[in-house]
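dude i think i finally got it to work??
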Amino acid sequence: MASINKVILIGNLGKDPEVRHLEGGVAVARFPLATSETFKDKNGERQERTEWHNIVLWRGLAEVSEKYLKKGQSVYIEGKIRTNSYQDKEGVQRYSTEIVADNMTMLGSRNEGGSQNGGGGGSYSNESSNSGGGGNMSASNGGNSGGGAAKETSGGRASASSSYDAEPDDLPF
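look at this
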């Protein structure tokens, strides 16, 4: 039987992306993403729980994040979960879990995040993904960084349409 490793998150950046360029010029970006849920406890009081996710972006997505993403900005992330194991200095086996993103859409208003042309509804995905889905829009050749005409991603949905600017409460996917 086939298996699926798919993660979808909407949250806020905990800090600006940290971008490194590896040998061969390959860019990799990392940042924490906070997702929050609210609920009422047994006493009827409203509680909020925040979960932190370690996000990893590669190549074109990393370069876009370096230019346009800022701490506090809302972002939609699609990707897969990956757990790495390593031994710390004392020889204890440790694990870290991260989300390797293959699609990203910037949410929020154009002015959010402090960037004049960042923030508002750009949708990006990595062209080469391990899942074999070839026709994704590449961040380097057609990413939409500030609204405008609709672009179609591999999932067949349009995002960043001009109606998004008129109705900021509607999600662009």
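The longest strand covers residues 27-40.
im so relieved honestly
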